Amino acid sequence: MNGPAAAFYGFYGDDFTGATDTLAHLARAGLRTMLFLRAPDDVQLALAGELDAIGIAGAARAMPAARMAQELREVGARMASLGVRLMHYKVCSTFDSAPHIGNICVALDTLRGYFPHPLAAIVGGQPGLQRYCVFGHLFAAGGAEPGGLPAIHRLDRHPTMSSHPVSPMRESDLRLHLRQQGLENIGLVDWRWRDAGASALASSLATVLAGRPRAVLFDVLDDAQLPELGRLLIDQATRQPLCAIGPSSVAQAYALARAGAAPPAHSSGTRIAPARSPVLVLAGSLSPMTAAQIEAAHSFTRIELAPARLTDAGASDYLDRQAASVIAALREGRHALAYTHRASEAGGPPPGAVAQACAALLRRVVTAVRVERIGVAGGDTSSFAMQALDAWGLSFQASLPGNVALCRLHAGEARLDAVEVALKGGQMGEIGLFEQLVHGAPGANSDASRRAG
């Protein structure tokens, strides 16, 4: 690659945790990648240096249609101007979305104005996260079977995703799920081509495209399918700029195809060093995994956040008081964990409003005290939290077990530049994740995400 303007692959994460996952996959594959916190200007691109892949972290998953379209028009125009040929709209591996918020049809329609290939590819499944797409239906791990193996659930029967507080999954067939958002006539290339290889994949796609579908869904059942799928996407995008929708398996497919390699073998990663100063964790996620991680965070002073008080008429005063408690703990050399109370699951203020309030609290804290390592739990909380900081980019440093990336913040302000940030979705990370941010951990290998729930 000859610099940013020659980057073939670009991606937009519809939340920040997902965007850092994609960043991690590309960086571990040896691709020079920068994740920008908004569409980059020329100065930021110059600071980033030569890049093989360009990412933008956003919050479209928490946006209504009009706001999504506005943001993605800016993203699409900037990525197209930089010469991107394969534009990846990165969604959660469980396709969190709904007609009223995070609408994937709106994203596709908007980006396709800049990446007009007749093939709009939707990649279902991310086997490394135990997400599997079979005949168009999405399955995901959640909990364990009596023998200890991960329990695999059809998504509309998943113990967490079927009752998601913002976008509960009522349908496991991704074609029907997306049809509810306005995306009609989705073709399917199912998994059965995998044993026959490239010719079978090309033949299956040609048959599906003959029906002139608005988009094509590709099953992904195991990692062995990814290199061939990546080669197909690269070939098609070389002919005409193409938009692909899916989880980080799109990035995996691209990286494996470029390398001409099979899925990487089990290998060790960079060790996460113990923190040199007090760690700050902000947990806005209500998932059972995050609750378990909070319970296991024995090294932290805990500051509970009442969701209703974060968003009511006296919210500013309440935020000031809670932020003062966090600041005091950090200044006294104690690790601090601020978390929203799980009672907010039953009624209470909208999750997006709570996430924005949590971001405001983070801004108050980092303005008052230098923090060298920060953890944020929750997709929407992570998105709003990073937007609240005066920074412009994230680069990958290492992987924590359970599919959590530890990144370096890039900012113009010295107090924020080089801060380490770990952003995690609700279900990600091991139970001891927050303790790992304090005490360090063995670096996770490229297959560590298989252990994630």
Automatic annotation (TrEMBL):
Residues 10-253 form the Four-carbon acid sugar kinase N-terminal domain. Keywords: ATP-binding, Carbohydrate metabolism, Kinase, Nucleotide-binding, Transferase. Pfam families: NBD_C, SBD_N. It comes from the Bacteria. One of its GO terms (molecular function) is kinase activity. InterPro entries: 4-carb_acid_sugar_kinase_N (IPR010737), 4-carb_acid_sugar_kinase_N_sf (IPR037051), NBD_C (IPR031475), NBD_C_sf (IPR042213). Residues 280-430 form the Four-carbon acid sugar kinase nucleotide binding domain. Belongs to the four-carbon acid sugar kinase family. This is Four-carbon acid sugar kinase family protein. The lineage of its organism: Bacteria, Pseudomonadati, Pseudomonadota, Betaproteobacteria, Burkholderiales.
